From TrEMBL, chain A:
The lineage of its organism: Bacteria, Bacillati, Bacillota, Bacilli, Bacillales. This is ABC transporter permease. InterPro entries: ABC_transp_permease (IPR001851). Pfam families: BPD_transp_2. It is a multi-pass membrane protein. The chain crosses the membrane at residues 12-31, 51-74, 86-104, 110-130, 137-158, 192-217, 237-257, 323-342. Keywords: Cell membrane, Membrane, Transmembrane, Transmembrane helix. The keyword Transmembrane applies. It is found in: Cell membrane.
UniProtKB/TrEMBL annotation, chain B:
It comes from Brevibacillus ruminantium. This is ABC transporter permease. It is a multi-pass membrane protein. The chain crosses the membrane at residues 12-31, 38-57, 63-84, 91-113, 151-171, 192-212, 232-258, 270-290. The keyword DNA-binding does not apply. Keywords: Cell membrane, Membrane, Transmembrane, Transmembrane helix. CDD domains: TM_PBP1_transp_TpRbsC_like. The keyword Acetylation does not apply. It is found in: Cell membrane.
Length: 358, 306
């Protein structure tokens, strides 16, 4: 009961922000001279209008959700991991290579690819954590820089040594994976795949870890008050590195399920162009790093994006309507701490006045 | 090798370096007052678009650049209000600014010019190429240094002026003091908030000019998301240069050279990814040796969102 209460409390602010975001979107739709209601109807249809569109929204939400869950874990431990993009790409390319070249039966290969994806993403993010712990190189900056290194290295791999040279046009992509390693689709002919179930399972798992385990408690302590946590005997380096590893591992898994579940090969730009990493960051922020909340916010942002595709198909309003609404959402959410900060400041001031009076 | 490295490579480096240099200097101003500005990318994009709009409607290049700077300042003031006024997390706001800029410019492209993807007008004049009077006649030097847009020269001038500002003026010292410890700065009576907002607004001016150079100095057109990561490269140049104007000059040059080189390497079927990767690796290596200067400040260090 307490959990439900807490969840609904943490959902009030995002819902308010969504309303404001949609209102802002309405202003822009009007500015282009389209009907507001009609456009939002197209958006709804594009996101949920038919079973097919619903499943493509779920498919798009899958990597966003996994990345957001990973980031939420890092944020809870008080580290700002900006490297989800690189970690995702690292996981995706390693998993693709394993799925292509490991001599093993299909199912074993698929499992090996999934494990490799998680490990590769996790190790890449652990590297940034290690630089922070050992050499005090700010994680915020190193993780951002490592994105470029990973993306460029993967781009080299698929445009030279592992490129698919069989087709007529030599695109920067790996050869197609064989059918036995493809993640099964949840419904035949629809785009949502088993990766979505992984994301849901990960959300529940993280929820229980944070709530009921000693490790979860340590993560929370470290994030909320590093000094207190040290006093309480939390090994800061160990907890930080573990949460960075898990955070990167989930991003790696996000990249891996995209490859095994929807593209069936590593295509250059397929993971970076849709901005999965930054959208995942937004989903985490919207949910205030709550793992169950992340499920809903990822679905919301994915629906916004697939909906905007529908809008672009059927009206004169461009796709970027989604970017505007997302940005407004985030600006409003980020101003939230302010509201509580302002309230705190007021009550503090009152206290000090009382103190003086006494 | 002779084909790869010649003087025109240096010339094109100078051209490519300019938007990065301008934006990185803007980012440095922010970081010097203790604000880590991830929104450079968005600010440049807004500058690039408003420069084209200004040029289209006024027909004057001077007004176009001023308009770009003004609109970008407004945008940067939104950043300042959210981060300083409302105490929102600066990284979060920066990311939102990037998304907002992408959305708004695409939208406005549709609303103002009624086109999709890119706006190009063959009658529109780009920034003129200045022939330097004396240097322009010297054989090699003239080829390299002469014939750039005024903003290119301005960018280098601003880098030097900013260096003098930080090392020679009282206000410069005050700005540095705010970045080092803003509680201490406030306690000796500095107007911390005002200095911070001013620095962010100046960052807007610089990013606006960076955008103008991008859309009017190099190609005379605007296309959706034409910044293509330059804002993040500027951010990295700022870190490598440790937020020191002359350091940024050097690091932006390195980035521009890598950029120009990797375009050239494409003709040699060499992997361009490695030249493109070099600046980022170098920046990480540089952080081993140059710790706790410039890029880091009390407020840009690790923090959670909660």
């Amino acid at each position: 009961m307490e959990a439900i209460k807490q969840l609904s409390k943490s959902l009030v602010q995002p819902l308010l922000a969504v309303v404001i975001g949609l209102l802002t979107g309405a202003i822009f739709i009007a500015a282009v001279g389209e009907s507001i209601l009609g456009t939002y109807q197209e958006m709804w249809k594009g996101a949920f209008g038919s079973f097919y569109f619903l499943t493509s929204t779920l498919a798009r939400a899958t990597p966003i959700m996994l990345i957001a869950l990973g980031l939420s874990l890092a944020f809870r431990a008080g580290v700002f991991n900006l490297g989800a993009e690189g970690q995702m790409v690292c996981g995706a390319i390693s998993a693709t290579l394993v799925a292509l070249y490991l001599p093993a039966p299909g199912l074993v290969k698929m499992l090996a690819a999934l494990v490799t994806g998680v490990l590769a993403g996790g190790l890449w993010s652990l590297f940034a954590g290690y630089l922070e712990a050992k050499f005090r190189i700010q994680l915020l900056i190193s993780s951002l820089l490592l994105n470029y290194v990973a993306v460029l290295f993967a781009s080299y791999l698929v445009s030279d040594p592992f490129q698919d040279k069989t087709g007529s046009a030599a695109m920067p992509q790996t050869p197609m994976l064989e059918k036995s390693v493809w993640l099964p689709k949840l419904f035949p002919g629809m785009s949502v795949h088993a990766g979505f179930l992984f994301a849901l399972a990960a959300a529940l798992l993280i929820f229980f870890v944070i709530r009921f385990t000693a490790f979860g408690y340590e993560v929370k302590m470290l994030g909320q008050n590093p000094f207190f946590s040290r006093y309480g005997g939390v090994n800061r380096v160990r907890v930080m590195l573990t949460s960075m590893f898990l955070s990167g591992g989930l991003a790696g898994l996000a990249g891996t399920v995209e490859v095994l579940g929807s593209h069936y090969r590593y295509v250059e730009g397929a993971l970076t162009v849709p901005n999965f990493a930054w959208t995942g960051l937004m989903a985490t922020l919207l949910a205030n790093s709550h793992p169950i909340g992340v499920i809903f916010t990822s679905l919301l942002l994915a629906a916004l994006q697939t909906g905007a595709m529908g809008v672009e198909r059927n009206t004169e309003v461009p796709l970027e309507l989604a970017s505007v609404i997302q940005a407004v959402l985030i600006l409003f959410i980020s101003a939230k701490f302010t509201y509580s900060w302002w309230k705190n400041r007021k009550s503090k001031r009152r206290e000090s006045q009382h103190g003086r009076a006494a | 090798m002779g084909e790869l490295l010649d003087w025109s490579l240096v010339s094109s480096t100078i051209r490519m370096v300019t938007p990065i240099l301008l934006a990185a200097l803007g980012g440095a101003l922010c970081s010097r007052v203790g604000v880590f500005n991830v929104g450079l990318e968005g600010l440049i994009l807004v500058g690039a678009f408003s420069a084209i709009v200004g040029n289209h409607f006024t027909g004057s290049l001077v007004l176009a650049v001023l308009f770009a700077a003004a609109v970008t300042v407004l945008f940067s003031l939104l950043f300042a209000y959210m981060t300083i006024g409302l105490r929102a997390n600066e990284i979060v706001v920066g990311v939102a600014i990037n998304f907002l800029a992408l959305g708004l410019t695409t939208f406005a492209l549709r609303a103002v010019f009624d086109v999709k993807g890119a706006f190009y007008d063959k009658d529109m004049a780009g920034l003129p190429q200045l022939k330097l009077p004396l240097i322009g006649d010297v054989p090699v030097l003239g080829e390299v240094l002469s014939g750039h847009s005024p903003l290119v020269y301005l960018a280098f001038l601003i880098a030097i002026l900013l260096h003098l500002f930080f090392t020679r003026t009282v206000t410069g010292f005050r700005v540095l003091a705010v970045g080092m410890n803003h509680t201490a700065a406030r306690s000796i009576g500095l107007k911390v908030t005002r200095l911070q907002v001013l620095a962010i607004a100046m960052c807007g001016v610089l990013c606006g000019m960076a955008g103008a150079q991008l859309s009017l100095g190099q190609v005379t057109m605007f296309s959706e998301g034409m910044t293509a990561g330059r804002g993040f490269i500027a951010l990295v140049a700022m870190m490598l240069g440790q937020s020191h104007p002359l350091g940024i000059l050097a690091s932006s040059f390195l980035f521009g050279l890598m950029d120009a080189l990797s375009i050239r390497l494409q003709g040699f079927s060499l992997p361009t990814q490695f030249t493109a990767m070099l600046p980022y690796v170098l920046t990480i290596l540089a952080m081993f040796f140059l710790k706790d200067k410039g890029a880091s400040s009390a407020s840009s260090s690790q923090q959670s969102t909660r």
